[in-house]
Records
---
Amino acid sequence: MMTGSGTTIRAGVPGRVYVALALFAIVGPFVWILTASFKHQIAIYAGQFPFTPTLSNYADVLFGRRSDFAGNIANSLVVAASSTALVLIVGALAAYSLHRFRWPTWVSAGFLAWTLVFHMVPVLTLLGPWYVAFRELGLYDTRAALIVTHVTINLPMTVWLLRTFFREIPPEILEAAHVDGCGPFDAFRRIALPIALPGLIAAGILAFVFSWNEFPIALTLTSRTTATVPVAIARFAQQYEIQHAQMAAASVISTIPAVILMFLGQRFIVSGLTLGAVK
Amino acid sequence: MIANLRHVCNLLVAVAFVAAAPASAQKAFVDVGKQPDITVLIGSTPWYPAFEKVVGLYEQQTGNHVKLDVTPFNSILEKARNAVRTGQSPYDLMTLDTQWTIEFYEGGFLSPLTDVDPKFVMPKEVLSYGDSGYWNAQKRWRTSDGGKLMAYTPLGNVQLLYYRGDLLKQANIAVPKTWNDVLASCSKLAKPPSMYGFVARGEKGNGIRYDWQSIMLAEGAQVVKDPEAGDYTVTINSPQAKAALDLYANLLKRCGPPNYGSLGQGDVIQLLATGKSALGDVVTAAFASFEDPNKSLVVGKLETAPLPAGAGGAHGAVIGNWNAVIPKNASDAQKKAALAFSRWFLTYDAQRAYAEAGGIPNRSDVFTSDLAKNPKYRWMPAYLETMKFARQELGYAEGAQVEQILGLRLNQALIGEMSSGKALNTAAQEIEALFKKNGRRTGMLPPLPE
Amino acid sequence: MRDAAALPEMTPQRRGARVAIGQLIDRSFRYWSLLPAALLFAALTLYPLLNLLRMSVSTIAFANGAEVWTFTPLRNFEALTTDDVLRPAVVNTIVFVVVSVVIEMVLGVALAIAVAGLSRAKRWVRTVAILPILVPPVAIGSMWKLMYNYDFGIFNQALVALGAMPVNWLGSTSVALASVIAVDVWHWVPFVFLILFAAVEGIPPDLLEAAHVDGATRAQMLRFIVLPLLRPAIVVAFLFRAILAFKVFDEVFLLTAGGPGTSTELVNLHLYKVFFEQNRLGYGALLSLAVIAAIVAFLLVSSRVALAVRRNGHSG
C-alpha cells in the first residue's frame, strides 16, 4: 500500500537469477527436511532416494501415545501471538517516544544502550533468576510467564528496528498534524504507525519467529502441560539417538501454523492501521 | 477438572484390570497402598517408552497417579537443579545421569532413601552399579562402605561390543576376546568405503572420554590414583594409558570411517544400523533400535559380547547409569509416595515387565530368568557379564571438568594435533592444577616422552 | 504517503465527548509511551544483571541444600587468564562472526533489493525466503548434521555422483568451521533479508521516480539513493545479527560440539560448558561479562571501520 511495485528499482536479469538461486539454496535444505519427514529412520540413515514414503512419523508426532504435540502447538500459538502483539505495542510506543519527544540524552541513549546490552547477555545466565522470580510469583509453569519473558527478550530488536522507521518520517508532517489540532497520541496512531507499516510487519514477523522458536526459557519456565513446540521437538533429540524422522515431521508441522499466523497477523496489522487512519 | 476426569478414568481402568487379571498374577508385585500423586522428572531417552509402560502398570494396579515430566535429554540437569535450589521441588522423584549425582549428593539436595523410610531396604538382587547410589560424605565418595543410600538405578547402561555374527562367520573370525583381537579382525573386515571394520566415538568431549576409558581400564590405567582414600595423584600419563590411547587411535584410523575424529553416538549407531560397520562399541540401550526394521538394515544380525580385555587380560567398562533420587525439598508425604513407587518398581515382576517393554532391568534375577533365552534379549548374558567388571569413573566433584580436559586432549591426539604422549601429559598437568586449586592432595607421574 | 491535510475531520459532537479523556491521553502521551517498556525492563532485567555482576566476583558452592557465596574476584579472574580453551575459542568466534555476518549482510541486502524489484509474487517470495528462521534450531543442527554425513549425507552423495571425492565436512579441522558457517548463513540470511526488504519497501517512491525522470541509471539509483536510504536498517540488521552470531549455540553444539580438536570451539559454547556443565557459576558469570565486553568492542570497531570506509568512498 505504501509503494507500488512500479516505483522501486526493477530487478534486471542478474537480479532475477540471483533471486532464483537464493530461493533454491534456501528451499533446498527445507525440502530435504520435508522428504525426511516422510521417511523411516533407516531410509534417512542410509540416505535412500527414492524411498517408500510413510505417514507414520506424522501419525506418531500427532497421535502417538506420548504425544502432546497438539497441546504444544496451542501453547506456542498463544505465547507467540500474545507476546508478538504486546511487544509491537510496547516497542512501537517506546521507539516513537524516544524519537519524537525530547528526552534527555541519559534517558534516550541510556534506554537504547540498556536494551542492546541486555540483548548481549547470554540467556543461560537469565534462566536461574527468572525461574526463582516466577516461582515466587506463582507464575511458574504458566503461559503468562513465557509471554512476559518473550516480550522482554524481543523488545530490544523491536525498539531498534521501529526506531529506524520512525526516523524516516519527515518532521514537517507531524508538525502539520499538530497545527491541525491532532494530539500527539493521534499523530502517533494515525500518521506515524501507518508510515512505519513495513517496519511493523518485519518487527512483528521477527518477534513472532523468535518467540516461536525460543527454547531455553520455555524449557525452564514450563512443564509438560505448558511446554511449547521447540521443547517438544527437542525431546526427539534423545540421549543416544536423534529421532530424525519424527523430528522432521514435527518441524514441518510446526512451520505451518507459524506461516498461517504470520499471514493473518500481517493482514491484521494492515487493516488495523487502515481503520485507524481513516476513522 | 480434566485432571479429575483422568483420575476417574485411571480408577476405572484399574478396576477393570483387577477384575480381568487372575489374582495370582499380582501377588509378586508389592502392595504399596493408596498414595498421593507424584511427579517424576525423566529424560527423553530410548528407554523412556518402556518406563512409561511400567508406570502405566503401576497406576493400573494401585490407582496411584504418576505424572511424568518428559524433558529433552540435554535439559534434565537444568530442571533438576532448578527444582532443588528453590522453595518446594516440583518433582518428587528425579532421574539423574550418574555423572551429575556427585553435585546433588555433595550439595545436600537429596533425601537418603532410608531417611524417607528407615525400613526401606534395597532388594539384594538389584545390581550395585558401582555403588553409585551410595554417598559417603566423609570420604566424599560413592560407596556403600559407610555411605547413605541416596538412589537406585532405573536404567543401567554400559558399552558392549557389537559384532556382525554373519560377517564374522563368513570370514571365519572368532568373536574378539581382546582389544588386539578387535584390531586384527576389524582390519580384515574393513573394505572402505563400502564396509568399515570398527566404529566407536571419537567426538570431542564425553564421547571419546567415555568410550576410550573402557580400553584405558582394560590396559590397567587410571585417571587418579586412589580418590576413595583421598589420594588424587594424577596417573593419566602412564605408559599403560598411552598404550590404550595408541590402540584406540589405531582402531579408529585403521578400521573406522575417515571422519573418525567427529564420530558421535548418533553416527556410530547410524553406521551399525545401515550395515556399514562390522564391529562397534555402543551402549546396551541401542540394541532395541538395531532390531527395529524401521531403524535398521541389520535386524537379527548384530550380536553382543562384553567389551574385550587388554594386554594383561583384564576387562574394563564404564557404567553409564541413571540414578533415581528424591529431592530434600519435596514434602514428606510426596517423598513417601515416591519411595512407594520405587519399592514397587524394584520388584522382580516390575523389572521383568520393564525388560519386556524394552527397558534394561536392574535385577540380576531377571537376567538369569527364562527371558535371557529369548533371542530378543540375547544381549542379556553379555550385559550381566560386563557388570562384573564395569565401574564408575570420574566420581568426584571435578568430574565434569576432568571430562572436558580429557575429552579435548584425547580428541586432539586422535586427529593428530598432538602426539599421544603430549596429549596425556597436557591432560595430566591440567587435571593436577585443577585438583591443586581445589585443595586436593595431588601430584602427577613423570611426563611421558613426547 | 499521506499528508496532514488529507486527515479526515472529526464531527464536533464526537470531539466534545472524547475531549477530556483524549486530552489526558495526549498530554501525558510523552510519559506513558515510554513507561511500559521501561517498567518491563526494570522488572525483568535489572535483577538478573545485578545478580550476574555479583556472581562474577564470587564463588558459589552448595552445601546442605543451600548456596554458599564467597567473595573471590581474583580467583575468577585467574580462571579467565589461565583458561587454555579460551584463546582458540576467541579466535574462532571472531572468524565465525566476521565471516558469517559479512556474508549474510551482503547476500541479505542484495536479496532484499532484488526481491523488491520483482514485479509479481513478492509476498510469496518473502514467505518462502524466511522458511529457515521458522525451523527450530535444534532441528536445523540435527538435520544439517545428517546432510553433512560423510557416508550418507546428501552433499557427499552428490559429489560422488559427480565423480568427485567426498568431503569430510565436520570431521576435518580445516573444513569444520566453514561447514558450520555455511549452516549459519543458510539460517540467517532470511533475517537480514526480512529487515532490509521492509526498509526497501519503505523508501518513498517519489524519490526514485524523480531520479528516474532525471535519467539516472539503475546502478546510480542503487548507489546514490537506495543504499544511503537503507543505511539505518543495514545498521540495525548488522547490530542484531552480530550480537546473535556471538551468541550462536544450538547449531554448533549439535553439529560439532566444538570439535574436532578446538577447530569449532566458540566462546558461547565454552561458556555453556563452564556455566552449565561444570556448574562454575562465578567464573561463568565473569565469562559472560567478558562476552558482553567483546561484543561491545566488536561493535565499536565495526562502526569505526564503517566510518572509514564511508570517508574513503567519499574522497575516492
---
Amino acid sequence: MSELTVFKRPEALLPVTMHYCPGCTHGISHRLVAEALDELGLRERTVGVAPVGCSVLAYDYFNCDFHEASHGRAPAVATGIKRARPDLIVFTYQGDGDLASIGMAEIVHAANRGEKITVIFVNNAIYGMTGGQMAPTTMPGQVATTCPLGRDTNLAGFPIRMAELLSALVTPAFIARGSLHSPLEVVKTKALIKRAFQYQREGTCFSLVECLSTCPTNWGITPTDSLKWLEENMLPYYPLGIKKTPEGKEA
Amino acid sequence: MQNEMILAGFGGQGVLLIGKMLAYAGMKEGKEVSWLPSYGPEMRGGTCNCTVVVSDKPVGSPVVKSPNIMIALNRPSLDKFEPSVRPEGILLINSSLIDRKAERKDVDVLYVRANEVAIECGSPKAANMVALGALVGKTGMVGVESVKAAIAKTFEGKEKIIQLNYKALERGVAIGKGEAQ
Amino acid sequence: MAKLLMKGAEAIGEAAIAADCRLFFGYPITPQNEIPEYMSLRLPQVGGTFVQAESEVAASNMLYGAGGSGARVFTSSSSPGISLMMEALSYLAGAEVPVVIVNIMRAGPGLGGILPAQADYFQATKGGGHGDYRCIVLAPWSVQDAADLIMDAFDLADFYRNPVLMIGDALIAQMMEPVEIREGRKPCKPLAPKDWATTGNKGRKPNIINSLILDPEDLERHNRRLKAKFDSMERDEVRWASYNTDGDYDILIAAYGTPARVCLTAVNELKEKGVNVGLFRPITLWPFPYAPLREKAKKAKAVLTVELSTGQMVEDVRTAVCEDLPVHFYGRQGGILVTPDEVVEQVTALLGGARPKGARKGGKA
C-alpha cells in the first residue's frame, strides 16, 4: 500500500509538545511562521526573537536560532541582530501586552526606522501568561482581572489598533491584519505572513502582521465560543486586511 | 616647568580653539598637555573657558583652580578669574573689549588690543590669535612654529585663513615680546 | 602610530573601532554626546553601523541583540541613562552576552547635574540590575587610559561572555590629551570563536540566547556556573596601580579616575615639602583590589579615600584594610571637583592628628 503524506510538521518547528492551553491559537500562528520559513527556504538563516508573555518559550518550539528578549524590547533586540548581521532573516513574535503596552516605544521606532525585520503580532485582547489582566487591546466592556467590571473606556481608553497606528508612519513597508478564528482566515493570514517574510528576503524594510487570536482560558469561555467571540467582538473593531504595502495602498 | 592656564571669553571668541592650539603645539614639542573645556549651559553662547596645562612632567590634575596664566578676552571672564591667578602669574587682558584695568598688583599684566590688531590684520575674528601670539611671545612656553603648525592643521585647505591667522599670531607675538603695542 | 590630541570621548570611540567594534547604539545625554556623535561620523567610514535609539532602554537591548549574534558592540551613556540600561545589563549577564557599556558619570541622584561625579560606583560594582551577577568595571584616569582600557574591555567581555563596564567621571570624556590608539595590538585574552551566537542554524542545533530558566534546579546550576565565572574574574582580572609607595609613608590615599590624578598632584606637592604620602589607584573597581590595597596600607597609619561622591568606594577600602587602621573619607559632590590643595589640607590635618575640615570621621571598620 502506498502512503500519501497530506499533513506534516514543518521543518522549522521542533518535534516537541507546546505548553499552550487547549484552544489557544498560538500553535496555529507558530505553524504559519514555520511554514512560511520552510516554503521560502529561510530557516537556516533565521533568528527569531521571543517576547515575554505566553509565547516566551517560542525558542523551544522553532527549529532556528532564537533570542529571548525582555518584556517589550523584542524590536530593539531584533534591530541589534539585523544591524549586526544584515544577511540574517530576523523576526519578532510578540503578544499584545508586550508589543502594544510596555514595548510601544520599541515597536514604533523600529517601524519608523524601517528596520528590515518582520514582526508577528499576536493580539488576543488580554494578558495571558500573567493571568488575564487588561491589555491595551482589551475590548470595551470586556472583563479582565484588572477590570473586573469590564473595560471602562472612561478610565482606560479604547483599545489600540496597532496595525492602523503603525500604518500612519511613512516608513514601514508592509502592515496587515489577519485573524485565526476560521480555516479561511488562517489560510489568508498565512499568505500575509509569507508575504511579510518575502519582503524581508528582498531587503524591503519593516513588515508586521497582526494576528487576531483567542485566549479561551483567560476569556473564561470554551475554545469554540472563543472563536465566535473573536468574530463577533473583535472583527468589527479590528478590521482585517492589508493596511500598507511598499507599492502603496492595496484593497 | 608647568604652565597652568585658564583661557576665557564669550562663546564664539575662539578661546577653546586657541586652548587646543596651545595643547597641540605643546604635544608637538614632546611636552605633556591637557585641555579641558567648560561645558554645559556656558556652551550655548554665554561665557566659556578652557583649562590648558603644558608641562615637562605628566599632568596630574587637569583641573586648575589657581592658574599661573589667565587670558581674559571679555570683561565677565576677567571679573570671574582675576582673583584666582597665582601671585607673580600672568594676566593677559583684551583691552579692546575690557574697559577696566587689572585690580591685582601682584601679577604681571599684559594689555593687548586684540580686536583692533585683528581688524588691522584683516578680520576681527582673529582676536583670539592675537591673544595667543601675545602669550607665546611673552612666555615662550611653546615655539611660534609649533603654533603655526597647529593653525595649519586646524584650517587645513583654507590657505587665506591660515595666512590671516599667521599674521594675527605674529602681531601678537611682537606685542608679547614688548616689540609693539 | 603617532600621538593625537583627542577628546576622551573621541579617543574612546576610535579605540573601540581599533578593537574591531563596528556597531554602536546610543541615545543622547550630556556629558557624553561626543561619543555617539563621533561614532555616527566614523562608523560608516569603516563599514560599521550607528543607530540612534529611541531610548537608553532600546539602545541597551539593541546591544543585547547584536552581542547575541556575535558582533562586538558598545554603547555609552551617562548616569540617568545608565539607570535605564540596568534591565538589559541583568539580561546580558544572565544570558552571557558580551558587550561593553561606558558610563560617563554626572552628578545625581535623579537628573542631578551634568558636571563630573563618581556617584555610580555602587550601581556599577554592587549590582544595579536585578539578580546575582557581576561585571568587570574598568576606571580610566586619563584619555590614554580610557583608550587602552576600552580595547581590553572588548576582549574581557568576549573572553568571559559577560558585559564589561567602563566608568569615568565627565572629565575623562571632555578633556583632550595626547593619545596613541594601539592599532593591531594583541588581545589581552585568548579569544575563542563565538559558536554560541545566533547566526542561523545551518547544519547545527539552534543556538538560543536566553536568561529564562524556569526549573529551579537548572537555574541554581546556572547561577553557580556564573558564580564560578565571576570567581575566576576576581582571581585573574584585578588591576591597580600605586604611586610613591616604595619608601615610608604615614598616609595612603585611595582614589580612582580623575580624582586620583588630583591626588597624585597633591602627593607630588607634599613630597616637595618632604612629606611622603602613598597613592593607591584601583583600575578595576570590580573585582576590587582588596589584597593589594591591604598590602600597601600596611606601611600607613591611616588611609584617606577621595571620591566625587558622599562615600561609596570607601566601603570597599574599609573591607580591604579590615580593622588594621582607620579609613578617612574626603569627597566633593554636585559636580564640584576635589582640588590638589584640598587633598594636601586633608593629609596635613591627618598627620597633625586633627580631624580635617569637611572630612568624614575615620574609624575602625
